[in-house]
Amino acid sequence: QVQLVESGGGLVQAGGSLRLSCAASGSSFSINTMGWYRQTHGKQRELVAEINRFGSTNYADSVKGRFTISRDNVKRTVSLQMNSLKPEDTAVYYCNQGGSNWGKGTLVTVSS
Fold this sequence. Notes:
This protein is mainly beta. It has strands at about 5, 10-15, 20-25, 35-40, 45-50, 55-60, 65-70, 75-80, 90-95, 100, 105-110. The strands form two sheets. Strands 2, 4, 5, 6, 9, 10 and 11 form a seven-stranded mixed beta sheet that branches. It has a four-stranded antiparallel beta sheet with strand order 1-3-8-7, with no helix packed on it.
């Protein structure tokens, strides 16, 4: 059974940075696409960034140039470096593996 545990959320001022990490259990990490999604109250969960097993990345337009996703297949971790944060980045951020496995989320709050 895959378990995903996020960490690194918190409160930051606009313009600041945070780094989210997700630790995964299970042996299938290296072959799966890993992603970060976010959700705010009353809205659908949306893709923020994803990285496939070859290291190819995809970003939501709203975070391009500010966020960077990376993975370490040996440590079975995926990270999201978030720079130049904006109040509209405030959300619960979820780690995803293979489209079907989810972490419990970590809250990011960006104050103006």
